Amino acid sequence: MNSRLYAVGYADRAVGTMVGLACGDALGAAYEFGGPISTETPIGMVGGGPFNWEPGEWTDDTSMAIPIAQEIANGADLRDEETLGRIVAAWNSWASTAKDVGSQTRAVLSSLKETTEEAARAASEAHHNRSNRSGGNGALMRTAPVGFAYLKNPHAITITARRIAQLTHWEEDAAEACILWSHAISHAIVTNKLNIRIGIQELNDKAKEKWRSRIEEAEQKQPEDFYTTNGWVVSAFQGAWSAIHHGIEAGEGFEGIVERAVRGGGDTDTVAAIAGSLAGAYLGVSRIPAKWRRVIHGWPGLGYRDLLNLTMAGVNQTPVNEITGWPMSKVMEGTSENVWVQHPHDDGVWMASLSALEEMPADIAAVVSMCRVGTDQVPGKEVIEFWLIDESGQNLDAEYVLRDAAQTIADLRAEGKKVVVHCVAAHNRTPAAAVAYSILYKGIDFERAWVQVRGALPSPKQNQEFDDTLSKLRPLS
Question: Do 244 and 278 form a contact (C-beta atoms < 8 A)?
Answer without folding.
Answer: yes
